[in-house]
């Protein structure tokens, strides 16, 4: 089987937007009482096909979000977009979180819930049908969505792999 090329991207710091997906307050019980800290899940992207996710933990909310953003900038991937939607249907999985994303006609919008919506909107997908199955844990859903997006192949890649022209790919034989 042919080795898949990595679709990791170097961050262009200037035009990245960030979106907080989940903020969780966790407590550690010590001899002196409870110690609270925060865990933040953040998605960053440029709205043009680049997206990444990150997790940050700290005692302060803003510090945990800043750590999550830094982590997300290290995990950027490039998503092939075709006319504001994805090129084909794809499934993604991470742990018990499973997602299904399907391309949609122009004007449909992002039909997705919770953590999936954040990832798809920040990636720049304008029309998509999405379904989250299994775990609704935001960690797993975000990672499963990014997994599905990373598995997407552009029409140019498919045509090159099959040794046919783009026109033949879309029109059939």
Structural classification = alpha+beta
Count every helix, treating DSSP H or I runs of 4 or more residues as helices: 5
Order of helices and strands: EEEHEEEEHEHHH
Task: Give the percentage of residues in beta strands.
Answer: 25-35%
Poorly predicted spans? none
Helix content: 25-40%
Rg, rounded, reads 18 Å
Strand order of the largest sheet: 1-2-3-4
Outline, from the CA principal axes? elongated
Kindly report the average pLDDT value: 88
Number of strands: 8
Sheet of most strands? 4 strands, antiparallel
Distance between the termini: 25 Å
Protein architecture, described:
The protein is elongated, with a radius of gyration of 18 Å. The chain has helices spanning 61-74, 114-123, 138-151, 155-162, 166-171, and strands at 17-30, 33-45, 50-58, 77-78, 90-94, 97-103, 110-111, 128-134. The mean pLDDT is 88. The chain has 173 residues and is an alpha+beta fold. Strands 1-2-3-4 form a four-stranded antiparallel sheet. 30% of the residues lie in helices and 34% in strands. Helix 2 (114-123) runs parallel beside helix 3 (138-151). The longest helix has 14 residues, at 61-74. It contains five helices and eight strands.
């Amino acid at each position: 089987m042919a080795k898949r090329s990595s679709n990791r991207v170097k961050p262009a710091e200037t035009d990245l937007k960030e979106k907080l997906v989940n903020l969780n307050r966790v407590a550690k019980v010590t001899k002196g009482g409870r110690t609270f800290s925060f865990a933040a899940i953040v998605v960053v992207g440029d709205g043009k096909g680049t997206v990444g996710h990150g997790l940050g933990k700290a005692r302060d909310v803003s510090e945990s979000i800043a750590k999550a953003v830094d982590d997300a900038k290290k995990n950027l991937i490039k998503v092939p977009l075709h006319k504001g939607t994805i090129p084909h249907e794809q499934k993604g999985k991470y742990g018990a979180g499973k997602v299904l994303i399907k391309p949609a006609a122009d004007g449909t919008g992002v039909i997705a819930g919770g953590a999936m919506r954040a990832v798809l909107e920040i990636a720049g997908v304008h029309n998509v049908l999405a379904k989250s199955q299994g775990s609704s844990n935001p960690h797993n859903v975000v990672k499963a969505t990014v997994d599905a997006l990373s598995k997407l192949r552009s029409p140019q890649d498919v045509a090159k792999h099959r040794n046919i022209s783009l026109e033949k790919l879309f029109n059939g034989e």
